[in-house]
């Protein structure tokens, strides 16, 4: 009985992954024509990125401040307080910036995308577009997908910059680390490959979170309960895939 359940779970998971990949291929095919309507994409960049900016900046500031406190206490044990700038920059650029931004994006923008498209499905707006020979993937799903993909690296960069400011605020102003040493250590330790790693991660996370959000909304059951379930699945799946892909990408860059 247990083996049957495990087999059914595995088969269901493989089918779900296959359905998402097929949806991605269809979405990518409609993304090129969607680029011909930049107004829609800009609106979705604002919807996914601009409306998430405040929470990204606040969380980036607090994460940077916590990183400054914890990093200072750890480095103080080894007499290396001046290396706080290096530790904060590498931690934010390579890990905390992309990962925390993706988790916040999934919780705020991802759920908004899923519920918006899901409600369009529940109110038969997508069906009406199909009846009028208008492809909903091109005019509804693709602009939202592209908006999320473009917004994620921008949000991650803002998160990292604000986080560095928070770490500098704690390290220099509160813990009295030399300001010149803080920034010189930071500049000397951060290389182009570190910035590239953060950009690649944020781009991959943007594709993943946006794809899951659009897919769940587009295929949500046309009921209020179905839209709520799709929204929950978006947050859970996006969070798990973000952490899984973070490990894979970190291992790849190492």
3D architecture notes:
By secondary structure, this protein is mainly alpha-helical. The chain has one domain. Helices cover 87% and strands 0% of the residues. The chain contains nine helices and no strands. The chain has helices spanning 2-34, 38-48, 53-76, 84-122, 125-131, 136-174, 179-189, 192-218, 224-253. The chain is elongated, with a radius of gyration of 21 Å. The termini are far apart. The mean pLDDT is 87.
Number of helical elements: 9
Can you write the helix and strand succession as a string? HHHHHHHHH
How much is the radius of gyration in Å? 21 Å
Mean pLDDT: 87
How many individual domains?
A: 1
Total beta-strand segments? 0
The biggest beta sheet reads: none
Strand content is: under 5%
Shape assignment: elongated
Weakly predicted, low-confidence segments: none
Which class of secondary structure composition applies to the elements? mainly alpha
What gap, in angstroms, lies between the N and C termini? 42 Å
Percent of residues in helical segments?
over 70%
């Amino acid at each position: 009985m247990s083996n049957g359940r495990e087999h059914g779970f595995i088969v269901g998971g493989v089918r779900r992954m296959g359905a998402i990949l097929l949806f991605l291929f269809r979405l990518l095919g409609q993304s090129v024509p969607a680029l011909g309507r930049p107004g829609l994409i800009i609106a979705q960049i604002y919807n996914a990125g601009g409306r998430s900016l405040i929470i990204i900046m606040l969380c980036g500031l607090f994460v940077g401040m916590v990183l400054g406190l914890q990093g200072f206490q750890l480095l103080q044990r080894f007499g290396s307080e001046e290396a706080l700038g290096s530790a904060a920059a590498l931690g934010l650029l390579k890990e905390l910036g992309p990962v925390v931004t993706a988790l916040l994006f999934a919780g705020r923008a991802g759920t908004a995308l899923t519920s918006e498209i899901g409600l369009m499905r529940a109110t038969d707006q997508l069906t009406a577009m199909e009846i009028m020979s208008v492809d909903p993937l091109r005019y509804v799903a693709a602009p939202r997908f592209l908006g999320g993909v473009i917004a994620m690296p921008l949000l991650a960069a803002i998160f990292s910059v604000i986080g560095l400011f928070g770490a500098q605020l704690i390290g220099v102003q509160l813990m009295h680390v030399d300001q010149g040493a803080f920034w010189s250590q930071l500049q000397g330790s951060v290389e182009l490959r570190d910035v590239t790693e953060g950009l690649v991660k944020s781009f991959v996370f943007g594709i993943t979170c946006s794809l899951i959000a659009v897919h769940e909304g587009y295929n949500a059951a046309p009921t209020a309960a179905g839209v709520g379930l799709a929204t929950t699945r978006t947050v859970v799946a996006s969070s798990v895939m973000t952490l899984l892909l973070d490990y894979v990408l970190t291992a790849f860059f190492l």
